[in-house]
Design brief:
This protein has about 300 residues and is α/β, with parallel strands linked by helices. The chain folds into 2 domains: about 200 residues, Spore Coat Polysaccharide Biosynthesis Protein SpsA, Chain A (Alpha-Beta Complex), CATH 3.90.550; about 90 residues, no CATH class. It contains 11 helices and 9 strands. Helix 8 crosses helix 11 and helix 10 packs antiparallel against helix 11.
Length: about 300
């Protein structure tokens, strides 16, 4: 039985998947098998896996009738099959460094924890969304720092298989964009006494394809679907994406809500190409918050409510 099960979800990104697999084959730590969790791909992924001849053991998992169901349900396909001591979740657009799995193993055998690996975007100079993400969440912390579990990100993550199984995996009801990892991390914090540790040297590299416009549209989707779902599931999670700043009636919330208006949004958006990088990141943070609020307001209006 291998020490690691690598959980690799993929959907219609065969070229990226090939890159990911090429780097997995070069790992210095080789005691692993891979679960290809195929989310209804139609781009030749299945044929590629069948014909590739990998230098590691693997299994292919799919949904009934080869449906497309989203990343959370697709990762959860592994739940009945996990037998290794550890699992590693990695997105198929990640190119893991040669010692990435070794670094996860070293931390997990040193202490009982969740090892949150590092993702480095290689196109931060050309893509402002990549640059913004590179400053968020875990990236605000030092190596081996214990960080809030709601910063969990499953792009590059390792943990004990029994812990993943005990919390029931990720929430399969969340099939659209946004919040799936945050909900997973928060649920782990409620159910398990496990620190989330930033393992900076367990590195995976990626190239961010999203434009800022596409990313902001996804924030509307998150605000209108998954944010209300998480709020309903975990009503005590008051600082969810700092949404407590607008989802209440105190003076601070009223001031924040007054700043979320279309004119300010348009002005800030128009200034993005002209401001220094440090200001640009703060501006994007405002745009993200505005769009999440726009999505949540859309959800409330559909319910016949309003702020």
């Amino acid at each position: 039985m291998p020490i690691f099960d690598i959980v690799l979800p993929t959907y219609n990104n065969m070229d990226e998947l090939k890159n990911c697999v090429d780097h997995l084959e070069k790992q210095s730590f080789t005691d692993f098998q891979v679960f290809f969790c195929v989310d209804g791909s139609t781009d030749g992924t299945m044929e590629y896996i069948d014909e590739a001849g990998f230098r590691f053991d693997f299994k292919v998992l799919t949904h009934p009738n080869f449906e497309n169901k989203g990343r959370n349900p697709t990762r959860n396909l592994v739940l009945p099959h996990l037998k290794s001591e550890f699992l590693c979740m990695i997105d198929s657009d990640i190119r893991p460094a040669e010692n990435f799995l070794k670094k996860h193993f070293e931390l997990l055998t040193e202490k009982k924890c969740i090892s949150l690996g590092n993702v480095i975007y290689t196109n931060t100079k050309e893509n402002i969304w990549a640059d913004y993400l590179q400053t968020r969440g875990k990236n605000k912390f030092n190596d081996h720092a214990v960080i809030p579990t709601y910063y969990l990100n499953s792009q590059n993550l390792a943990m004990r298989s029994e812990d993943f199984i005990s919390v029931g995996g990720q929430d399969s009801k969340m099939r659209t964009y946004g919040g799936g990892d945050t909900e997973f991390g928060y649920r782990i914090s409620k159910l398990l006494d496990l620190p989330l540790i930033f393992n900076k040297h367990a590195v995976g590299y990626s190239e961010m394809p999203k434009t800022i416009d596409f990313a902001l549209e996804q924030m509307i989707e998150f605000g209108s679907i998954n944010l209300p779902y998480i709020k309903s599931k975990h009503p005590e999670f008051k600082d969810l994406f700092r949404f407590d700043l607008i989802d209440s009636s105190n003076i601070k919330s009223l001031l924040v809500k007054s700043a979320l208006n279309k004119s300010i949004y348009k002005t800030i958006y128009s200034l993005l190409p002209y401001v220094p990088q440090v200001i640009k990141r703060k501006f994007i943070h405002y745009l993200v918050f505005y769009k999440i609020n726009e999505g949540y307001d859309k959800y409330l209006k559909n319910k016949g409510e309003s702020f």
